[in-house]
Amino acid sequence: MAWIAVSLAGACSPPAAAQAINPTDESLRQQERQQDLRERFETAPDVRLGPETRPSPTLPANETPCVEIDRIRLSGHAQPVFERALNNALTSLGWHSGDCLGRQGIRAIKREVQQQLIDTGLITSRVSTPPQDLDTGRLLLIIVPGRVGAIRPGASAGERARPRPAFPTRPGALLNLRDIEQGLENLERLDSVTADIAIEPGEAAGTSDIVVDWQQAFPLRVSLSIDDSGNDATGRFLGTATLFGDHLFGLNGLFYASITRDLGLADRDHPGSSDSYAIHYSAPFGYWRFGATASRFSYFQTIAGLDRDYRYSGNGERKEIEISRVVHRSQAGRTRLRATGWLQTYSNAINETRLTVQDRRMAGYSTGIEHRHFLGRATLNLLLTHRWGTGMLGARRAPEESFGEGTARPHITTLDVRLDAPFALGDQALRYRGRIRGQFNHNRLIPQDRFAIGSRHSVRGFGGELLLSGERGAFWRNELHIEVNGPLHPFVAIDGGRVGGPSAKNLPGKHLVGAAFGLQWRWKNTWIDAWAARAMDRPSAYPDPGLQAGFQAGIHF
To answer: From CA 49, how far away is CA 185, in angstroms rounded?
Structure first.
C-alpha cells in the first residue's frame, strides 16, 4: 500500500517519495518485535518430578512351586486409572492367562503394578495382596488410594504465600505427582518466587498434605535492554524498559509493562522515530490460565519534498484476552489448548492528514494446541493455531475486498516447531536449536496478515529493510551452540525461508538463505548477544545487503 501514500503526498518528488518506508513492512517488523518480547517475558519453567528410567520388568521363568492363574483383577470397584495400571503392568511383564505363578512371580506383578502407579503420578497409592485361595485360578490385588489431605504453606513460608489456587487438585482427590508438578510450575513462573514441596502425613488415614515452602524476593523487577533491530528511517537503535510485578494481587499472577523507543543514536538526514508499548497480566488456576495483553506501536518518518518536508506516520494497536488449559500431562510431556479473542487496528497519516484508505480495524478469534515433549535431554515444542476474523467489535471491511485482494476476516493456520537438543562430539558439548515456522492461508490476506522473511527474527543476513512477504510461507532456522566453560558461548547458524501466494507473484523473488556467526555472553544478571550474518542465496533482483551485524544487550534487577 506504499503507492497510495506516494500518490496522496502530491508535492513529494519521486526520488524523495521513494524513500518512504513501506507501512506494511513496518507493521510486520513491529509484530515480530512484540512476539519476541512476549516469548522472552512469558516463559514457564519445566518441573519434572518423576522417577528415572528403569529396566524392563520380567517374570521369573520356570518358578516352582507355582499355581496356574487364569485371571488377575482388582478388589472392589477400582477406578479406571487403577485398571490401566494393572493392564499396563501385565502387558509389560508379558503375563498371559494360564501362566504358572509362584511367590516371586506374584511379587513381580505386585511390584510392577506399584511402579505403574508411580509412573502415572500416584506416588502415595499402595498395592497389596490380601489372603486368598489361589487354587481358584484367580489372583486378587488391592490398591489403597493415597489422597490429598490439605494444601498449605509451610511453617517458614512467606506471609503472602497463596499456594492453593496454583494446584489443580483438592482435599480428598487422589494425590498425583502431575498435579504437584503443575502447581510448582504455576508458582515458579515468577522469577522472584522460589517454591519447594514436601509431602507429609495428613490427619486422616490414607491422606498426605502438600506442604509448600514459598518464598518471594522483592515483587517488583526491572529489565533494561538495547538493540539495533530498528529501521534506518525511524531509528536503528532501540531501548526497552520493562517493569515486572509478581504476585501483586495474591493470585500468583505475572504483570509487566514495557516501553520501547528509538534512542536517537544514529545519524539521519531527516527526523524519524518509533516507539511501542505493551502491558500484560496473566494468572494460573490449576490447569487453567487466564491472561490479557494490550500493545501499541507508532512511528514517523520525515521525507524531503521539493519545497517542504513531509511527515509520514503510522500506528497500530492490538488487544487480546486468552484462556488456556493443560489437557494432558505425563512424565514425557504436556499438552495445552488455547482460545484467544483479539482486536487490532492500523492507521497512517501524512502531515496529520489521516489516510483513511489505509485504516484497518479487525477482530476475531484464534484457537491453538501446544505440546511440549521431552526426548531424553532434548525438548520438542509444537504449536498449531488457527485464526479467523469476524465482524465483532466494530470490525470494518478492508478496501482490498472490493478487488478480491484481501479481507478483514482472514482464515490463517500457523505451525511453529522448536527443538532444543544438547549432545556431544567426543568431549565437546554442543547444543542444537532449530525452529520451523509456517503459515498457510485459506483466503486472500491484507498485507499486515501476510508472512514475511528477511529480518533477524526469520532469515538472518538481510538486514530487515526489505522484506519478502506473501499469503503463505515458511522459514527454518538452525543454530549450533558450542558449550564452553565460562560466560562466553559461540554459535553458528543457517536460515532459509520461502513465501508464496497470489501477492508473491509481484516480488523480485520468493526465497532467501542466510548464514550467521555469533557470540552469547551471560554473567549474573547481564547478557549480550552479538552476531554477523551474510546472505547466501537470494533472488537476482534482490539488492545485495552486504555483511550484516547486530546485537542485543540487557540487564535485569
So the answer is: 11
Query: In order of start, what are the domains of the chain with their CATH numbers?
Result: 400-557 (2.40.160.50)
* Backbone angles phi and psi of 21, in degrees to 5: -70, 150
Quick: pLDDT tens for 404-421: 889 999 999 999 999 999
- Residue 424 host element (H or E): strand 411-425
Indicate the length of the chain as a whole number.
557
Write out pLDDT tens, residues 214-232: 999 999 999 999 999 988 8
Cβ atoms of residues 385 and 366 within 8 Å = yes
**In 117-237, beta strands by DSSP E:** 126-128, 138-144, 147-153, 193-201, 207-216, 220-227
3-state secondary structure of 110: helix
Task: Fill in the amino acid letter for 512.
Answer: L
pTM (two decimals)? 0.90
The DSSP H or E segment spanning 187 is helix 177-188
Predicted confidence (pLDDT) at residue 8 exceeds the cutoff of 50:
no
Q: Decide: 148 and 210 in contact? Cβ < 8 Å.
A: yes
Write the CB contacts of 461 (distance below 8 Å, at least 6 apart in sequence): 495, 512, 513, 514, 515, 516, 533, 534, 535, 536, 545, 548
Distance CA 433, CA 450 (A): 26
Cα–Cα distance, 443 to 450 (Å, whole number)? 11
Helix axes 103-120, 80-93, angle to 10 degrees: 130
Please state the φ and ψ torsions of residue 41, each to the nearest 5 degrees: -90, -25
Strand order in the sheet with 126-128: 71-74, 138-144, 126-128
Residue 277 dihedral angles phi and psi, to the nearest 5°:
-135, 150
Q: Is 17 helix (H, G, I), strand (E, B) or coil?
A: helix
Burial code of 343-362, b = ≥16 C-beta within 10 A, e = fewer? bbbbbbbbeeeebeebebbb
**Euclidean distance between CA atoms 206 and 124, whole angstroms:** 8
E-strand stretches of 2-99: 67-68, 71-74
DSSP label at residue 271: -
